[in-house]
Amino acid sequence: MEFLEKDLEEVIYLADKVKLMEKGLDLNGKLFRQLRIGNYGICDLLHVYKNYNNIICFEILELKKDKIGISAFLQAVNYIRGIQIYLKNVKKRNYYNYNYEITLIGKKVDDSGSFIYLPNICDKNFLSINFYTYSYNENGIYFNLHNDYSLIDNGF
């Protein structure tokens, strides 16, 4: 049986939060599934929570059954912009008072270009980007955070 993107979404959405955290993915707030963000699209999962500074965070979880790359990132950027416009124009709130996160989850990370440096160069106080890979077997699903990429030969 092939493990599909919708299967990954269902496992994350229905999972007990404590067990999910034990398996490497911390989602301690409210989770929305297949949420339409106006004409900006439908995000797989939206996680809304308050961080340690009591600031509301909007975390887009973009899921891919195989490789995550720049197109998944740009898709998530689109959703974040939709949320910002919604907060500004509909809710009449300053969207700068919130934090935004992009979490990309897939079987592999596309490490063929500069895309892999995104988590290291973003301002974690306004936009945080995380890459996770998942593995799924008879013991369930497990998540592994990928960050701090650099060239094999830095040249200095």
Protein model, in words:
With 156 residues, this protein is of the alpha/beta class. It has a single domain, classed as Trna Endonuclease, Chain: A, domain 1. The chain is 26% helix and 35% strand. It is built from four helices and eight strands, in the order H-H-E-E-E-E-H-E-E-H-E-E. It has helices at 5-14, 17-22, 70-90, 118-121; strands at 30-36, 42-50, 56-63, 67-68, 99-106, 108-109, 127-137, 140-146. The strands form two sheets. Strands 1-2-3-5-7-8 form a six-stranded mixed β-sheet, with helices on both faces. Strands 4-6 form a two-stranded parallel ribbon. A hairpin with a 5-residue loop joins strand 2 and strand 3.
Q: Quote the average pLDDT.
A: 89
Q: Supply the number of structural domains.
A: 1
Number of strands: 8
Could you state the order of secondary-structure elements as H and E?
Answer: HHEEEEHEEHEE
Total of helices: 4
Shape: globular
Distance between the termini: 47 Å
Helical amount:
25-40%
CATH architecture verdict: 3-Layer(aba) Sandwich
- Computed structural class: alpha/beta
Nearest-angstrom radius of gyration? Answer: 16 Å
